[in-house]
Amino acid sequence: MKKTIYFIIDTMGVGGAETQLLRIIPHLRKFDWDIRLITIKDKNEFTAELEKAGVSCSSLAYGTSFPKFTGNVRKLAAEINETKKENQVVIHSHIVSSNLFSRFLTLFLKGKTVLVNTVHNTNEGYSLRYLMYKITRNRAQYVSAMSQAALEVHRKKKASRPDRLHLVYNGIDLEHFKKNVEVRDKMRERFSLNSEFAWLAVGNLSPQKNFTNLLRAWKLLLQNSDLKARLYIVGDGVEKEMLQEKITQEKLDGSATLLGRRNDVQDLMNMADGYVMSSDWEGFPMVLLESAATELPIVATEVGGNSEIVRHGESGYICQPKSEQSLAKAMQGLMAQTAPELQEMGRIGREHVQKNFSVESIAKQWNGIYETLLKDN
Questions:
Q1: What is the pLDDT of residue 224?
Q2: So what's the pLDDT on residue 238?
Q3: Cα–Cα distance between 250 and 91 in angstroms, integer?
Q4: Closest C-alpha among 114, 144, 147 to residue 370
Q5: What does the pLDDT look like over 279-290, one tens digit per residue?
Q6: Which domains does the chain have, with CATH numbers?
Q7: CA–CA separation, 214 vs 233, rounded Å?
Q8: For the purposes of burial, counting CB atoms within 10 Å of the CB of 336, is it exposed (0-12), middle (13-18) or buried (19 or more)?
Q9: Residue 61 backbone zone (phi > 0: left; psi -120 to 50: alpha; other: beta)
Q10: pLDDT of 198-236, one tens digit each?
Q11: Of all helices (H) and strands (E), which one includes residue 59?
Q12: Which of 203, 345, 168, 343 is nearest to 287 (CA)?
């Protein structure tokens, strides 16, 4: 009997959940899964790439008009019911709103339905969302959390049944993210970097990432260190103008640069000497896995699954969130390391990722989970 997975996600833009799907889908295809991807909103920047890989893509067009959206939901329910006549079906949703939507969707499906939800953050939003999670907790057969921290929060808030809540890490393509000396030399020449210590930070310019705190820490660092250093922040978002104004007001224009949205993050990781994350909350950030795989020493706040990726004192440093003093101290500590010590930190970081978070092993794990759920359903 054929096997079909319906992946449901809000949008397919640039983000951790989206990146994980893009990386893992080709490996799941090797297990003979027919894969169909549904975005709730009209945004999928990877339709051509996914369809080339044999994945069917469609949108429910939420936000266009309510009649159109509800009509698309009815069509999706009818399609899944029809598919279930000949195929074994798994529905796997990512991110809180899609998780809640998929639980609602099962009310319109015939027979037993295997529903998997994936929780990406320790903070799933306002209290109403957790109430809706609790009310619908019996609809999902399997709920995965990306980190131990996210799992504990979800369990504490009773958002899912404890017997159906599990830890499943993100996976990373180790061939795509790796150290490349030639790329490093080319990029440092392009950015006119000589002996300067280059820091990289990547993320949506939003309150969650707290780049404001990073800039405060950066100012402290420059005041207390004689080392020449540059900070590059990659990303776009609602705080872009405010952050640029702060850089100008604090006279950091010569040392801190907003690079905007980029498609060469892997090359920038090779260019950098250290990666820094200043987030107030996280789930299990892919960008830290990517940095570690590129053998980049890391400084990150102690939120979400960060401490499960960064081995404190070995592959980088973990510091307090919302504290510019703690962040600046950790960054200064990393910059004080010798070149061989930084190289060893990078080696340990990649080794840790290679052992625990390869996309091949995670895809194999998910295939086993799907097969077991179908067997038990």
A1: 83
A2: 96
A3: 49
A4: 114
A5: 999 888 989 999
A6: 2-171+358-376 (3.40.50.2000), 181-356 (3.40.50.2000)
A7: 10
A8: exposed
A9: left
A10: 999 999 999 999 999 999 999 999 998 788 999 999 999
A11: strand 56-62
A12: 203
Could you tell me if 16 and 355 are in contact, meaning their C-beta atoms sit under 8 angstroms apart? no
Largest CA distance in the chain: 69
Between CA 93 and CA 73 the distance in angstroms is 15
Cβ atoms of 289 and 357 closer than 8 Å: yes
Q: Is 193 helix (H, G, I), strand (E, B) or coil?
A: coil
205 with 243: CB under 8 angstroms? Answer: yes
DSSP result, 248-305: HHTT-TTTEEEEES-S-HHHHHHH-SEEEE--S--BS-HHHHHHHHTT--EEEES-TT
Tokens of 239: 């705080």
The neighbour count for residue 193, using CB atoms within 10 Å, is: 18
pLDDT at 369 over 80: yes
Rounded CA-CA distance 163/166 in Å is 8
Q: Among 181, 176, 175, which residue's Cα sits nearest to residue 270?
A: 181
Percent residues over pLDDT 70 in the chain: 100
Task: Tell me phi and psi for residue 5, to 5 degrees.
Answer: -115, 130
d(CA 211, CA 34) in angstroms, rounded, equals: 41
Amino acid residing at 303 = V
Question: Which residue from 200, 180, 242 is spatially nearest to 331, judged by alpha carbons?
Answer: 200
Q: What is the pTM of this model?
A: 0.78
Average pLDDT, the chain: 94
pLDDT higher than 80, residue 124:
no
